[in-house]
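Hi P.,

Sorry for the delay on this. The queue was packed all week, but I finally got your sequence through. Input first:
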Amino acid sequence: MTDVTSAKSARRPHHWRRDLIELAALFSAVALADVVANLVVHAPDGPVLLITAAVALACTAGFHIWWSQRHSHAPPIEPSAGPPSAGGPAVPVAQDEEEEMPRPDTALWRLRTTVRDEPGSLAALCTTLAHNRVDILTLQTHPLADGTVDEFLLRAPGTFTAQQLGHEVATAGGHDTWIERADAHDLVDTPTRVIGLATRTALDAAELPLALRQLLGRCTIHSVPAVTADGAPADADTPGESALEETVMRLRDPSGGAITVERPHLPFTPTEFARARALVELDARLGPRMPRSQDVFTLPEGNEITVRRAGPDDAKAARALHDRCSERTLRLRYHGPVGDADRYLAHLLSPRFGRTLAVQTASGRIVGLGHLLWDGDETEAALLVEDDWQRRGIGSELLGRLVALAVEAGCDSVYAVTQASNTGMVAAMRGLGLPLDYQVEEGTLVITARLAGTPTRSRLPYEPHVRPHAQPYEPSYDIRQELP
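Then the structure:
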């Protein structure tokens, strides 16, 4: 609306000037015609004067046409140029040149702070951020009983530190502030991210713990079974209903037992609790499910075998695999004698604690299992291949697929616990082509593969009024079964 009005205003002087010239020309023509008429009537040289008057009128008409064409077809004023400044005329900038202009370095930050539940509190905070050239990309509000938790995704100048940002927020009235570095993956808006997590959970029951982690950020997740292997209750503190207690969230596990989520560095809000509970309820309504996709690959000798996801329904076939394995193979896998294979398999095949791949022959017999287990900040990979099918590339194929799943889940590393005499596992880890770290712990060999290309974040918490000298919080992610 402003551009159109400016363009119209710029052409208004042309209208009255042109009208004035036309009136002047008209009066001059009338006067000239009157003079010519008088001369023609009363003078003997009437024809000469008449021709002279005709030439004068033609010249006047030609001048009028030239003047109109010159001023009525002038190029329009570019709206983007804007009004000229007081210091001189405005200089338009081409679009390509504007895009090529260097921009200052910026950094993305996630900020969460609590403000008073009063009109103008959020406006004061936003004004302070704008004064420091901090751009607000997204904003979420979490209502509380005595205030409001505001969560921002910010783009700040690259020289702006977490301490400076926290100081400005505190000046604007924010308290219980938490700040951490963000990256481009955080630019997805919250509704889109929640819908994506719900879709992943609907397709695969094993995605629920990972979806909770991505929904709630850096947290520790404990999965407590309903009963032990011998049928006794596993935990007397299993809640009858979901509950929220500041930094601890207890949710009913649809498969039995409970899921406990802890985030000591940042209390949960009722909004986050409602989202997590809705995700768990979705998992409960859909029931047990698992992707049915499977891949067929050919062994060096020409046999075709199938790799697919395995779950609790494969417990009987997995137990039969254990019975066919030698004691040495089982000792290398479990680092000692297997006292209760059923108990171990119930844990390993549960989608709550990781993912399992099964290798089966054309007859449907399982001859190998690969487990990817969530374990704190790292992820464990474990393999078991039947004796008659070893040294055929099955272990390497399983390990490569497990590492791909770990990268997809956002893990930073994968480790394997074995013995130096297990040359097959050592060779499979070396065959990944990833940076490896070797460490001997209590007579066992721990090989850790650092996953190249996995996105990492630089995090720095800041709470100016709670823990001003707190050290940077190290992320913790632990999904494990608390075995009795």
